[in-house]
Amino acid sequence: MPLLEATTIIDAPVERVWPVLADVSRWPLWLPTVTSVEPLGPPPLSIGASYRVVQPKLPAAVWSVVELSPNSRFSWESRSPGVRVLGTHELHPVTAASTGVSLRIDFSGPLSGLARLVAGRLTREYIEREAAALKERVERGSQANSR
Prior knowledge:
Helix 1 packs across helix 3. The chain has a seven-stranded antiparallel beta sheet, covered by helices on one side. 32% of the residues lie in helices and 39% in strands. By secondary structure, it is α+β, with helices and mostly antiparallel strands. It has one domain: 2-Layer Sandwich (Alpha-D-Glucose-1,6-Bisphosphate, Chain A, domain 4), CATH 3.30.530.20. It is built from three helices and seven strands, in the order E-H-H-E-E-E-E-E-E-H.
Protein backbone atom coordinates (compact mmCIF):
# COMPACT_ATOMS: atom_id res chain seq x y z
CA MET A 1 0.00 0.00 0.00
CA PRO A 2 1.35 3.47 -0.78
CA LEU A 3 2.31 5.56 2.17
CA LEU A 4 0.75 8.89 3.06
CA GLU A 5 2.99 11.92 2.68
CA ALA A 6 2.87 15.68 3.12
CA THR A 7 5.70 18.00 2.11
CA THR A 8 6.46 21.67 2.41
CA ILE A 9 9.34 24.11 2.23
CA ILE A 10 10.02 26.32 5.24
CA ASP A 11 11.79 29.66 4.91
CA ALA A 12 14.30 28.88 7.65
CA PRO A 13 17.46 26.77 7.88
CA VAL A 14 17.35 23.20 9.21
CA GLU A 15 18.95 24.39 12.45
CA ARG A 16 15.82 26.46 13.21
CA VAL A 17 13.31 23.82 12.09
CA TRP A 18 14.75 20.78 13.88
CA PRO A 19 14.37 22.04 17.48
CA VAL A 20 10.67 22.76 16.88
CA LEU A 21 10.02 19.42 15.17
CA ALA A 22 12.03 17.34 17.64
CA ASP A 23 10.44 18.86 20.76
CA VAL A 24 7.47 16.49 20.54
CA SER A 25 6.29 17.20 24.09
CA ARG A 26 5.48 20.78 23.03
CA TRP A 27 3.53 19.79 19.90
CA PRO A 28 0.13 20.30 21.61
CA LEU A 29 0.98 24.00 22.02
CA TRP A 30 1.00 24.61 18.26
CA LEU A 31 -0.31 21.52 16.43
CA PRO A 32 -4.09 21.49 16.08
CA THR A 33 -3.96 17.73 15.42
CA VAL A 34 -2.37 16.82 18.77
CA THR A 35 -4.19 17.10 22.10
CA SER A 36 -1.39 15.80 24.33
CA VAL A 37 2.03 14.16 24.23
CA GLU A 38 3.19 12.44 27.41
CA PRO A 39 6.79 11.20 27.59
CA LEU A 40 6.85 7.68 29.04
CA GLY A 41 10.47 8.09 30.12
CA PRO A 42 13.07 10.80 30.33
CA PRO A 43 13.33 13.27 27.46
CA PRO A 44 14.85 14.22 25.06
CA LEU A 45 13.93 12.51 21.82
CA SER A 46 16.16 9.43 21.49
CA ILE A 47 16.01 5.92 20.03
CA GLY A 48 13.80 3.81 22.28
CA ALA A 49 12.01 6.81 23.82
CA SER A 50 8.24 6.34 24.00
CA TYR A 51 5.39 8.84 24.12
CA ARG A 52 1.65 8.52 24.67
CA VAL A 53 0.04 10.69 22.00
CA VAL A 54 -3.61 11.76 22.04
CA GLN A 55 -5.18 13.16 18.88
CA PRO A 56 -8.74 14.22 18.17
CA LYS A 57 -10.90 11.48 16.60
CA LEU A 58 -8.19 8.81 17.08
CA PRO A 59 -7.52 6.42 19.96
CA ALA A 60 -4.53 7.30 22.16
CA ALA A 61 -1.39 5.57 20.94
CA VAL A 62 2.10 4.89 22.25
CA TRP A 63 4.79 5.92 19.76
CA SER A 64 8.36 4.66 20.17
CA VAL A 65 11.35 6.23 18.40
CA VAL A 66 13.04 3.67 16.12
CA GLU A 67 15.34 5.92 14.08
CA LEU A 68 17.02 9.23 14.82
CA SER A 69 19.46 11.38 12.87
CA PRO A 70 19.61 14.77 14.60
CA ASN A 71 18.90 17.76 12.34
CA SER A 72 17.74 15.34 9.66
CA ARG A 73 15.04 12.81 10.59
CA PHE A 74 13.32 10.70 13.14
CA SER A 75 10.92 7.82 12.79
CA TRP A 76 8.65 6.40 15.42
CA GLU A 77 6.20 3.55 15.39
CA SER A 78 2.93 2.69 17.01
CA ARG A 79 1.67 -0.89 17.16
CA SER A 80 -1.73 -2.40 17.73
CA PRO A 81 -2.89 -5.95 17.02
CA GLY A 82 -2.26 -6.60 13.32
CA VAL A 83 -1.06 -3.07 12.49
CA ARG A 84 2.22 -1.19 12.64
CA VAL A 85 2.14 2.53 11.86
CA LEU A 86 5.49 4.15 11.09
CA GLY A 87 5.71 7.94 11.17
CA THR A 88 8.78 9.55 9.59
CA HIS A 89 9.68 13.22 9.95
CA GLU A 90 12.45 14.28 7.58
CA LEU A 91 14.25 17.57 6.94
CA HIS A 92 16.70 18.46 4.20
CA PRO A 93 18.31 21.76 3.25
CA VAL A 94 16.92 23.28 0.06
CA THR A 95 19.13 26.37 0.32
CA ALA A 96 21.17 27.79 3.19
CA ALA A 97 18.00 29.60 4.31
CA SER A 98 15.24 27.10 3.54
CA THR A 99 14.33 23.55 4.56
CA GLY A 100 12.33 20.84 2.84
CA VAL A 101 10.05 18.90 5.16
CA SER A 102 8.53 15.50 4.50
CA LEU A 103 6.07 13.87 6.90
CA ARG A 104 5.20 10.27 6.08
CA ILE A 105 2.88 7.66 7.57
CA ASP A 106 3.13 4.02 6.52
CA PHE A 107 0.69 1.32 7.61
CA SER A 108 1.90 -2.30 7.60
CA GLY A 109 0.80 -5.65 9.01
CA PRO A 110 -2.06 -8.04 8.29
CA LEU A 111 -4.77 -5.54 9.29
CA SER A 112 -3.08 -2.49 7.73
CA GLY A 113 -5.58 -2.32 4.86
CA LEU A 114 -8.47 -2.08 7.30
CA ALA A 115 -6.63 0.48 9.45
CA ARG A 116 -5.89 2.60 6.42
CA LEU A 117 -9.51 2.33 5.25
CA VAL A 118 -10.77 3.48 8.67
CA ALA A 119 -8.15 6.16 9.44
CA GLY A 120 -6.40 6.92 6.14
CA ARG A 121 -8.35 10.02 5.15
CA LEU A 122 -8.06 11.56 8.61
CA THR A 123 -4.37 10.65 8.80
CA ARG A 124 -3.67 12.32 5.44
CA GLU A 125 -5.55 15.43 6.60
CA TYR A 126 -3.58 15.47 9.85
CA ILE A 127 -0.12 15.22 8.28
CA GLU A 128 -0.99 17.95 5.77
CA ARG A 129 -2.15 20.20 8.64
CA GLU A 130 0.97 19.29 10.64
CA ALA A 131 3.31 20.26 7.78
CA ALA A 132 1.49 23.59 7.39
CA ALA A 133 1.51 24.24 11.16
CA LEU A 134 5.25 23.50 11.38
CA LYS A 135 5.90 25.94 8.54
CA GLU A 136 3.80 28.63 10.21
CA ARG A 137 5.35 28.07 13.64
CA VAL A 138 8.96 28.23 12.42
CA GLU A 139 8.47 31.09 9.96
CA ARG A 140 6.52 33.15 12.50
CA GLY A 141 9.31 32.55 15.03
CA SER A 142 11.92 33.56 12.44
CA GLN A 143 10.07 36.81 11.74
CA ALA A 144 9.79 37.59 15.46
CA ASN A 145 13.52 36.99 15.92
CA SER A 146 14.48 39.27 13.02
CA ARG A 147 12.67 42.30 14.50
